[in-house]
Structure of Membrane protein YkvI:
Amino acid sequence: MWGSGLKWMFLIIGTTIGAGYASGRELWQFFGHESGLAIALFAILFSISCIVIMQVGYQKQSKDYLPVLRVIVGERLTKIYDVMIFLYLFTTTVVMLAGSGATGQAFYFSYWWGVGFIAIMLVLLFVRGVNGLLTINQFILPILLVGLLAILLLFTFDQKLALFSHWHEQRNWTAAFPFTALNVLPLIAVLGAIGNKIQSRKEIVIAGIGSGLILGVISYIYNNSLIQIAEEILVYEIPLFAILKHYSFVVLVFMSIMLWFAIFTTAASGILGLITRIQSYWHVPLWVIALFAIIVMIPFTTFGFSTLISYIYPIYGILNLYVLMRLILYPLWHNKNTA
């Protein structure tokens, strides 16, 4: 039970902590000053959303996101949100590919070397199907989470930052809703693809609460650190590097590798959602569909990493608010319909 629950928890976190999140760019886009309450609300809403999505997938024994989506948004809106999820997964995976290129540039490699490397690794990952993604998440995510948290805490103590000094200033609390909504749509796609692999409701609770708690704590500490370097963020494509410049080259290299793995796991989750949906129409191995999808995506990476996040993420955060509302109220309207 615990093993399976942690496996799903790492899948959820791996889906969420990508180029936008791990780099700090996504957090800064939504939060920033006066956002402590917003992050606490995000952790709660995120946990509820994960539990509901997994519960529906478990009941439907789903192999892709469509049966889950049909229950959550209703039959009439399913086609609209099916297209929206597909476009979201496509565009955010493009962001991950661009993020890999930007990470490579930080070490003076060609942008296209970074994009090409992650593209090849993604195709190879799906030679093993879904199990390839689950396996790599179980190994990579604990190292990534511990490393990121260690750097953020080290920066907090080195700079003598106060973690709870601004709790009387919480005017940005509404940011919790679009930020959670932004991260809900890929979770429907990814968790919908493994509904038939969930074996008990206890796994669902462990995964939902665990992922919300971990992401809430890291988000709060990360955002608190970014507030201290707000002026420097303007000149950094990846805000995390503004924190890492205070430390040795070894630390910079280690965290850059971890950042790349965060990008990789989220890109892999996005590809999983796409290719399992496509496979319901095109019955070929997953890696073949992954190869085709990535070839189509690569030209779109020319828009740049921070530009893609600045425009795409806020738009989806707003559009997904209806889905978030349905997830939060699911126990009420579902029980009413089945009564």
Remarks:
- The chain has one domain: 2-338.
